[in-house]
Structures are given as C-alpha cells and as structure tokens.
Design brief:
207 residues; alpha/beta; six-stranded parallel beta sheet; 9 helices; 6 strands; 42% helix; globular
C-alpha cells in the first residue's frame, strides 16, 4: 500500500487539456513554430521554457506571453467528475497529497478561487517557479515527496501526459496514467496501470 498521492493538474484533476491544446495548436500555427504536433510536444513544460525554446524573438515571445495570460484570465477551471470524491476518500485515510504542475501561481490562485475548499486537500503545491527542470525531469515529483516527508517509492503519481508519466517513473514512484489526453495504447508502453479517469481508480486498492 502506498503512503502519498502526487497529482498532475491539467488532464488529471482539472478538465482543461483540450482548451490548452487548442490554444497551443493555433499559436504554433499562427507564429509558424514548425514543430509537428506542437501542442503535444510541449505538454509538461513550463511557460518560461516554452517561450524561451520556441519563441526566441523577444517581441514574439512577449506577444505569446500576453496571449496565454489573457487566455487564462477567461478560463473556467472545471474539476473532473469524481475528483472531489476521490480526494475526500484519501483525506479520510490520512493520505498526504500534493499537486505537481508546470502552471504558474497566478493560474493556481484563479483555480482555487473558482473552486473553494479545493486547496485544502493538498499539503503542498509545486508550481513552475519551484523547479529548475520541468517534466519529464523528476525534480517536481521528488520535491513534492520531500515536502510530504515520504519516500518517492512510497508515492503514487497520477498523470495524463507522456512527459508526466516519464517524470513519475524517473522519480521512482508508482505511476497511474489516466487516458484523458493520450490513448491507453500510447500510455501502456510506459506504465501498465492505465484508467480512463480518476473516478475509475479504487483508493482502497492502492492506499
């Protein structure tokens, strides 16, 4: 049985991956990034890393930063069905929980304002500025496990992106993948444990 739960945000707890994919697909096309499946390639990267790597021109980088900031101001952060019930079950068991996301603090504040009480489930939240290396690097998950005072191998990481799954594996944690963003066929070569959504995971089987 595992002792802690580490959650990615978008595509795991919050149903927003499709909105972000549409934004980055259009942005990649509008600014002629020239990277096939750009919206998939950047998943798990921080905004700063995306801007620095794919938008080297300072003027364009500033334009894209403004676009994503405006986009996030109008977003509604909707929790997946079953998420609150799952978190409540873990809370009753006394399982410490953390969010590990490439999102920034401004976005997280908006999310928590829109979903009162949601922040209370998590002992710590790792955001973009808390790490030097984004997923697939394990730094975020290792830092979260350390803040919870739990060994990484005693944690379950819940992820939907390929880079996120790789990060959890590299951290030494058990990884449960959710096929909200990628198909089970793309996820199972990385981890054999794949569920459609968090609502399909039985907490009693793992914690």
């Amino acid at each position: 049985m595992y002792k802690a739960a580490l959650f990615d945000l978008d595509g795991v707890l919050v149903d927003s991956e499709g909105v972000y994919s549409d934004f980055w697909k259009k942005t990649g096309e509008d600014f002629e990034v020239g990277v096939p499946n750009f919206e998939q390639v950047i998943k798990g990267s921080t905004l700063e890393q995306i801007l620095n790597r794919y938008f080297p021109d300072e003027t364009i980088r500033s334009q894209v930063a403004t676009l994503i900031a405006d986009h996030e101001k109008t977003m509604r952060y909707i929790l997946f069905d079953g998420v609150l019930h799952f978190l409540q079950q873990l809370s009753k068991k006394g399982i410490p929980m953390a969010i590990v996301t490439s999102s920034n603090a401004t976005k997280m504040n908006s999310l928590f304002e829109q979903n009162p009480g949601f922040r209370d489930f998590f002992r710590t939240v790792i955001v973009d500025k808390d790490v030097t290396n984004s997923k697939p690097d394990p730094e975020g998950y290792l830092k979260a496990a350390g803040r919870l005072d739990v060994a990484p191998e005693d944690c379950i990481v819940f992820e939907d992106s390929l880079n996120g799954v790789k990060a959890g594996i590299a951290a030494g944690a058990k990884v449960i993948a959710l096929s909200t963003t990628n198909s089970p066929e793309r996820l199972t070569p990385l981890t054999p444990t794949v569920f459609p959504t968090l609502a399909d995971v039985d907490p009693d089987s793992w914690f």
